[in-house]
Amino acid sequence: MTEPEFAIALHEDDGTLLVGIHPDGNITTGPNYQPDTAAREFWDAVTRAAQAASPWGQT
Questions:
Q1: Cα separation, 42 vs 3, whole angstroms
Q2: Hey, which residues does 17 pair with through a beta bridge?
Q3: In the list 14, 21, 29, 50, which could disulfide-bond 8, CB 3.0-4.6 Å?
């Protein structure tokens, strides 16, 4: 089975979908979805992306 198209997809360490956001804004949750866990993973991913894009490097 192929995963639907997501604009953003967050997965657990074992690859299980945690939550996926479709381009139209709809959300698909995985079997172990917990809002707080998904929110932490989302913001951790944002932080990693911002640090990777920073021209000044990590502080």
A1: 19
A2: 11
A3: 21
Report pLDDT digits (tens) over 11-44.
998 999 999 999 999 999 999 999 999 999 989 9
Tokens of 25: 């804004």
Q: Which residues are CB-contacts of 5 (< 8 A; sequence separation ≥ 6)? A: 22, 23
The three state secondary structure string of 4-34 is CCCCEEEECCCCCEEEEECCCCCEEECCCCC
pTM attached to this predicted model: 0.69
**Alpha-carbon distance values, 58 to 29, 40, 41 (Å):** 32, 20, 19
